[in-house]
Description:
Chain B: Keywords: Signal, Sugar transport, Transport. The complex is a heterodimer of chains A (304) and B (357). With 304 residues, chain A is mostly helical. Helix content of chain A is 73%, strand content 1%. By secondary structure, chain B is of the alpha/beta class. Chain B folds into 2 domains: 28-131, Response regulator (Rossmann fold); 133-253 and 286-352, Rossmann fold (3-Layer(aba) Sandwich), CATH 3.40.50. In chain B, 42% of the residues lie in helices and 20% in strands. Chain B is built from 11 helices and 16 strands. Chain B has helices spanning 2-26, 43-58, 74-85, 99-108, 133-147, 162-178, 195-207, 221-229, 257-269, 296-311, 338-342; strands spanning 28-33, 62-63, 66-67, 88-93, 113-117, 126-131, 152-157, 183-188, 212-215, 232-237, 248-254, 276-279, 286-288, 321-322, 328-330, 351-352. In chain B, helix 4 links the parallel strand 4 and strand 5. The termini of chain B are far apart. The interface between A and B is large, with 37 and 40 residues.
Amino acid sequence: MFEAILLTVITAATPLVIAALGELVTERAGVLNLGVEGMMIMGAVCAFAATQMTGSPYIGIVAGIVGGGLFSLLFGFLTLTLVANQVATGLALTILGLGISGQLGESFVGQPGIKLQPIVIPLLSDIPFFGRVLFAQDLTFYLSIALVIGINWFLFKSRRGLKLRAIGDNHGSAHALGINVIRTRYLAVLFGGACAGLAGAQLSLVYTPQWVENMSAGRGWIALALVVFASWRPWRVLAGGYLFGAVTIGQLHAQAFGIGIPSQVLSALPYVATIVVLIIISHNRRTTLINTPASLGKAFVPDR
Amino acid sequence: MKKLIIALAASAALLGGFSTGAQAQEKKKVCFIYVGSKTDGGWTQAHDRGRIELEKALGDKIETPFLESVPEGPDAERAIERMARSGCAIVYTTSFGFMDATVKVAAKFPDVKFEHATGFKAGPNLATYNSRFYEGRYIQGQIAAKMSKKGVAGYIASFPIPEVVMGINAFELGAKSVNPDFKLKVVWANTWFDPGKEADAAKALVDQGVDILTQHTDTTAPMQVAAERGIFAFGQASDMIAAGPKTQLTAIVDTWGAYYIKRTKALLDGSWKSEQIWDGLKDGILTMAPYTNMPDDVKAMAEETEAKIKSGELHPFTGPINKQDGSEWLKAGEKAEDGVLLGMNFYIQGVDDKLPK
């Protein structure tokens, strides 16, 4: 029973974690891309279409990553090269993504999907209790964990990561030091888009192997909130994603179990939990300021 | 390049002129407002199937423009008004949430006819139409009670509105007519449309031991979960057999086409009247998808019940029925009035859930 709940939580939390990690890197470079929802749904439709046409969900995963990544380059071109407003462009990207994906996916509606099968790791998966939960998952779960570790190392232990954070904190100074701000930001946006695309692929290949218009149903926005929730720290994204997933699934189980709490209250719980944690985190203003990229959302035009 | 643009603009103008000019004179416009996308696989798609049927039947006399994904709220009024202004003879607004907007626009355009689906406010030029979905739910309940080994079914509900509560009660009544101890677990997803959450709700119910699933949400995600876990399920609004060829027992299929054709014919010959219509299985406004994945005796029972409902011999809400707390609602032989059903805000005995208020 408990194992079953954990498995459901993992499936629900994985797309949130992956999309939020991508956005975290983008925001650490000082770019606020509100188009996560749009990139995610593009990833979902590309992944589903490629899987249906080739029969291989792994090609679908790649297609999702490429789809989300390419779509984010549109955002990059508008905000980094043409210096358009990031908030407005991000919102437009979401609306555009929802529209285009609906158009692209029209012929795939109602087709039964092909599910990405779990990769069972021998020996480790035989560990009682945790073995099946942690080592008999599909590729996207392993990738999400690898991304947490990798991004944490990249941002805080590598030279390139230091440069990326410097750009996010003060793009003027970084530019003066000879760091190529625009190029790094393009790469950060591309990475964010690729992660959102992967998260979308998880939706249409693992979570619910089917395509329906607007199937991301707001998960991109939750991923955006998770980044702030995690105060731009990869491990906290993981924790936040699982907390959100656990409360969401927990409330459904509570309902099925017949606990006499109104379902509206239970449905609001994940959001209430998020707000409570946000209040606790932001209580200490100094740590919040240290982690917030100071140039977030500000346009950069090299003066010379 | 410039030449190309001019050519395009000219041809666009020609096309536009053609469709609004000569043709519109002969053909009446029968217009539709959809709340979702016409390929949502559920509610809106069912209405669009109806529209396509209508066009097939009367395509030489009418055209059927539609607006999709119109949000419920202030935008709806604008969209409906735009339709009315564009020369529609009749406008079908196909979601409960369009009710007040439709009422307002109908008052402004007395010469245009309006029909609002599932609402309860009518006017001189505004009719309402609805489908007795609960008749199908009752049949599903009977099948569930026969097919379930554990005697517990799971119900994925959307919002606690009368329509949904009525469905839950009808399902439980059907089940109890076969197995008086049948239990129904209800999970409120608080959404019409979120494949992920619907799947999560389905998984939670299966993990808690139900072996039959039914849903009042819009996507096939619960059907997929049921297929994966090897239990049975019922489809909703559309035939969902493709998502669960070995899983779906039957589905309530919304078949608005016959209704749209009937009403549009009335409009064309001038006999259209404002009415409040609540049609059922016998009128063909809903049909049951083929009874599959069940033994012959269960199938025979389902078909018999369907026939009895169609002939009027059986009304699912016939007493004796007690409310959830055990107090009496309907005496033996007493039938529920339509008005009570349309405002239903209580559970009957046997539903294992607390109704959100």
